[in-house]
Design goal:
Helices cover 33% and strands 17% of the residues. It is an alpha/beta fold.
Length: 521
């Protein structure tokens, strides 16, 4: 028994059979005599590799395995490693290291301090002291990644370790949920029962922790309005439910204004709160108290006020549901929906997304990375199911396109739709090759406004006059149809409103990936 055999035996028992990677010389020894029951999914750039693994993990719920090349590969992947950390994605990231015998001589492609390179955006990082320790390090990495708050971990493995003798890792069972402290749950339950007008703020942790349906039951029990947390990466509450209020912005004063009139705010699986721009004043309305249920101790530590329970979102909500029924409250007014967008040339983003929402197949999954269009999407599209919507909690670009590939790989029986900005698409455009090679049923919808519109819109907030141009934000001359076809993906361009619905219908009936580039105002 050698290290390689012991590691693959452990991975089988952990339910991991796919390796997402971009190979280099120091990784090759891991893959000699590659087992027939494992699959290697190649990414053409390391950011694509991590993005695919992130989407796959978000869709399956089990940790994924990533293989990167030494220091250079980890460096290329760091943007999406940061996103995986913010997304609480359990992921075992491995990187090859030069052979131990030549490490003292600063070898070519050696990593001088490998465990520090991905920090602080991994939960645990190690280069095992002995080859014999590598299978045990994989086991610890897996359980560390899966324990709350979930996240990526990192292993640096010297190239000459894989053939060294080892033993099988002993069987073990490790729990992956921690129940919140009953005393704190009781305080939150009492506050909810005594409240006259409670409001919930649901975050991505609701969906990640399999608490979607339970939060619906808790909101209905208390007749509480439910807002989606700012910059939320998942659907935490059905957006067609009568109690759904809408989406909170990432601005302190606006959050306080929207929550005004409520005497209790309960943030579930979300920070309280995520801000994108500098703000001032109170974090909650003056008459309101804040309660929070989070699986992230770090989030709990910086929450500025209130009563905070730390532990499993699902178990905490179930504990609240086990209490006696509270007093009856009047229901809130229904949410106001905006008007339908009218056709125009060029098309508006609202027009494109409303038609997309109307035509997309039932059971489809959306992966979004179009920052300028996020608020438009929230007004024009409705998500009602758990694990039906994915984006990134980090704000970093380059996640959406490969994540759509990963989600489709995990859900081959469902149509995946990637809504992407033209700027964000270029961060990991190589993922189109993966979609074509794997023949995955993905529709890549590019909203091409030929600029980094989000930065131009932020200009006035950072002192730019309204008629002052923001340097480095124009993106003319990118032909996404040509790029997609060059990578093996079917593609078409839509410039007129009359062309949109036929193009979407064609894409939804395709058995493989299709890119639609839409020209929007």
């Amino acid at each position: 028994m050698n290290v390689r055999q012991a590691v693959f035996d452990l991975l089988r028992r952990l339910g991991i059979s796919i390796i997402f990677g971009n190979p280099g010389s120091t990784e090759l020894p891991m893959f000699r005599s590659f087992p027939d029951d494992f699959r290697y999914v190649l990414g053409l750039q390391e950011a694509v590799v991590v993005g695919m693994a992130d989407g796959y993990t978000q869709a399956t719920g089990n940790a994924s395995l990533v293989s990167l090349h030494s220091a250079a590969g980890v460096g290329n992947a760091m943007g999406n490693i940061f996103t995986a950390f913010k997304n609480h994605t359990p992921m075992i990231i491995t990187a090859g290291q030069q052979a131990r015998s030549i490490l003292p001589y600063d070898p070519f492609l050696g990593s001088s301090d490998p465990t520090q390179l991905p920090r602080p955006y991994v939960k645990w990082s190690i280069e095992p002291a002995r080859p014999y320790d590598i299978p045990l390090a994989f086991a610890r990495a897996y359980f560390t990644a899966m324990l709350p708050p979930r996240g990526p971990v990192f292993l640096s493995i010297p190239a000459d370790d894989w053939d060294q003798p080892s033993e099988l890792v002993a069987e073990r069972v490790v729990s992956t949920e921690i129940r919140p402290e009953p005393r704190i749950i009781e305080r939150i339950g009492d506050a909810l029962d005594q409240s006259e007008r409670p409001v919930f703020v649901a975050g991505a942790g609701v969906d990640r922790n399999n608490a979607f349906d339970d939060v619906v039951r808790l909101a209905e029990r208390h007749n509480a309005r439910v807002w989606t947390a700012p910059m939320c990466a998942r659907c935490g509450f059905p957006e067609d439910h009568p109690l759904f209020a809408g989406f909170l912005p990432a601005a302190r004063e606006k959050i306080v204004a929207l929550l005004d009139g409520h005497d209790l705010i309960f943030a579930i699986g979300a920070p309280a709160f995520t801000y994108h721009v500098e703000g001032h004043g109170r974090h909650v309305p003056p008459q309101a108290t804040l309660c929070q249920l989070t699986d992230d101790p770090s989030t709990a530590s910086w929450t500025p006020t209130g009563t905070i329970a730390v532990g499993s979102i699902r178990l905490g909500v179930l504990d609240l549901l086990s209490r006696s029924a509270p007093k009856q409250r009047a229901g809130p007014l229904p949410r106001d929906h905006g008007p339908m967008a009218e056709p125009s040339t060029p098309m508006t983003t609202a027009f494109v997304l409303q038609r997309l929402d109307k035509l997309r197949p039932g059971g489809s999954v959306v992966v979004e990375e179009a920052p300028t269009a996020r608020h438009v999407m929230q007004a024009c599209m409705t998500f009602t199911r758990s694990r039906s919507f994915f984006t990134m909690d980090s704000g970093g670009l380059g996640y959406g396109m490969p994540a759509a590939v990963g989600v489709a790989l995990a859900r081959p029986d469902q149509r995946v739709i990637a809504i992407l900005g033209d700027g964000s698409s270029m961060y990991s455009i190589q993922a189109l090759w993966n979609a074509a090679q794997l023949n995955l049923p993905i529709v890549f919808l590019i909203l091409n406004n030929r600029r980094y519109a989000a930065l131009q819109e932020f200009g006035p907030l950072f002192g730019f006059s309204h008629d002052e141009s923001v340097p480095g934000t124009e993106l003319p001359g990118i032909d996404f149809v040509a790029i997609a076809r060059g990578l093996g993906c079917s593609a078409l361009r839509v410039e007129l409103p009359s062309e949109l619905e036929p193009a979407l219908a064609r894409a939804f009936h395709s058995t493989g990936p299709v890119l639609i580039e839409t020209t929007v105002a």
